[in-house]
Amino acid sequence: MSEHDSSTNLWHQLLESRISRRSALKGSVAAAGASLLPLSLETASAAPTDAPSAQARGNAANTRPPFSPIRPSTADDLVLPRGYRYDVVRIYGDEIAAGQPFGYNADFTAYLPIDWLEGGQSSTDGLLWVNHEYPNPLLQHGNLAGPKTPEQIAIERTSVGGSVFRVQRQRNGRWAFVGDSHNRRVTGFTTCRLTGPVAGAAGVRGAVEVSGSVGNCSGGITPWGTILSCEENVDDYGAPLVQGGFGYGWDQSYVKEHQGWVTEVDIYNPSSTPLKRTAMGRFRHENVAIRLSANNRVVAYMGDDRNDSCVYKFVSDGSYDPKNREANMKLLETGKLYAADFQNGTWLLLDYASQNALKNAKAANGTPLFRDQSDVLLNASGAASVLRATPVDRPEDLEVHPLTGHVYVALTNNSAHGNFHGQIVRMIEENNNPEATSFQWDFFATGGPQSGFSSPDNLIFDPYGNLWMVTDISSSRTGRGIYAFQGNNAMFFFATEGANAGKAVQFASGPNQCELTGPSWTPDGRTMFLSVQHPGEESSGMDKLTSHWPNLGGDPMPRPGVVAISGFPGWRRR
Ligand code: FEO
Ligand code: CA
Ligand code: CA
After folding, report:
1. How confident is the model at residue 247 (pLDDT cuts 50, 70, 90)?
2. What pLDDT does 16 receive?
3. Is the CB of 236 under 6 A from ligand 1?
4. What is the mean pLDDT of residues 246-268?
């Protein structure tokens, strides 16, 4: 515990020293970005939704928000700027395939054009993946006191995981769900396969096939058109039921070591098995942001969303081949996993064979902490701690700037030691090489009343390099006390270059006690998909509902869901 505390203080010492150096560094960062612009345009992620980057080349200086900002709001609605509107595409309980309802607490979304495997870029017809992060016993079956019946556990367990379904923009401009053979659910019961070094290892009880994907928070898209769903708070489900807390008291069939991975799903192949990528480590995965190196290795940036936890990157052994999707499907099976040391600006290799500190590490009772690489991957945060990677303040999303290659990291908050509003930090790899083992870093933005936002969570860039961010002030605190200035959880726009770089401009405000999560674009930039997660989460009973969204008033219980936001001018016309 004492080592934990001293490391925590280390992060805050680093924060303070960077605040005083910020203006000096800022100049050098801008210069590095400018000089690397042509190269990084070519090397930025080749994910399908990044294709508009090419269209933006002649327009890269467009840093003005394409909307008139809204004010903070406590309205029980998704409030948008004038000229924008949202269509509710699916909410909890809506059927997406025969007998398969849309799950609870929608999170990460990814739009992939229906014609993408044939080289198309449709922005009006696609497959939408949506994560379902965690259940809500009160609003799903009403049993808060426990013990839960098998049926109640099944309701919760089938409501997490993810949904994939077809969406189309209609002639009237509205987005609609479409029945289709691609539509399916991944749930807490779906058979998934462990791949990589931990498959079949003792630490997972010898398992290769496992039951379910849970805690599906944010995620990512690969350049070969699969989605990555990140399993975050996976310890909660097997834990004893805690009323009003995060113990769900599921039965003994839940094995937490089978969860906590990055799970890859080929949404174009409805009979494919979700694949858990153990080489990317097991921790509270928030999301994955992919960049290709000059050698076409896949570099995946990831955060462990917990107080005083680390930032990681995975570098694939193999190289991406744009012409061989089948081979690309194996790229995340083997590679190197690193954790970030922010004090020295180095990436520390989590490798049992070459790191004596991992071989010599002992638990309090004297037994070895790690016996092989599978133990290191299963307990990646423990290995990062042994190697003295830097614990930081709850890393949520990481995203790669499409023009500079810099990695933006949302550190949401850490109230345990006085960081109540969080920061967005920017990492710059040595020589802008994502395979590098050293980096610099700097602040991009700091939360608080002076900047207008608190608790940054999911991030997404537009192809001009502007950052769009959603906040995650906890439900019990939104609109109150030191968080009152922001009203409900919200979405903000930031230019990353120019006079207004780092200044938050408010785009949206969510319904009561919700978190807006998982924004994603269509390739033309005219539509953003967005989840409205946990509206009315502080309701204390069915007769004391604090939100009714998507109903605006009346008595219905709130239902989390996914919306399509229209009104954006699109990339070409800005
Ligand atoms: Fe599930 Fe870190 O938010
Ligand atoms: Ca999140
Ligand atoms: Ca969050």
Report:
1. confident
2. 76
3. no
4. 95
82 Cα to the center of ligand 1, angstroms: 30
Take atom 1 of ligand 1 and give the residue whose Cα is closest: 217
Measured from the CB, is residue 305 less than 6 Å from ligand 1? yes
Strands 395-400 and 407-411 turn out to be: antiparallel
CB atoms within 10 A of CB 71: 8
Can you tell me the mean pLDDT for 27-32?
Answer: 32
| Percent of the chain residues topping a pLDDT of 70 | 90
Distance CA 167, CA 48 (A): 17
Neighbours of 354 (CB within 10 A): 8
* Ion ligand 3: protein residues whose beta carbon lies under 5 Å: 457, 472
Question: Distance, CA 376 to ligand 1 centroid (Å)?
Answer: 23
- What is the Å distance from ligand 1's center to 252 Cα? 25
Number of domains in the chain: 1
- pLDDT value of residue 242: 78
List the Cα angle 297/264/307 in 5-degree steps: 85
Dist CA 411 CA 88 (whole Å): 30
Q: Identify the CATH number of the domain in which residue 64 sits.
A: 2.120.10.30
Nearest ligand atom owner, CA of 108:
2
CB of 460 closer than 6 angstroms to any ligand 1 atom = no
Domain range for 238: 10-566
* pLDDT tens for each residue of 425-439: 999 999 999 999 999
Query: What would the pLDDT profile of 270-327 be if each residue is shown by its tens digit?
Result: 999 999 999 999 999 999 999 999 999 999 999 999 999 999 999 999 999 999 999 9
Does the CB atom of residue 304 touch ligand 1 within 6 A?
Answer: no
In a domain, 4, yes or no: no
Distance 397 CA to ligand 1 centre (A): 8
Q: Is residue 3 part of a domain?
A: no
Ligand 1 within 6 A of 76 CB? no
Consecutive H or E run containing 377: helix 373-378
CB atoms within 10 A of CB 219: 31
In a domain, 178, yes or no: yes
Gap between the Cα atoms of 553 and 172, Å rounded: 26
pLDDT higher than threshold 60 for residue 2: no
Tell me, yes or no, whether 550 lies in a domain: yes
Q: What is the pLDDT of residues 175-218, one digit of tens each?
A: 999 999 999 999 999 999 999 999 999 999 999 999 999 999 99
In angstroms, what is the span from residue 218 Cα to ligand 2's centroid? 6
- One-letter amino acid identity for 381? S
Write out the two tokens for 550: 């998507």
Pocket lining: 375 vs ligand 1, CB cutoff 6 Å: no
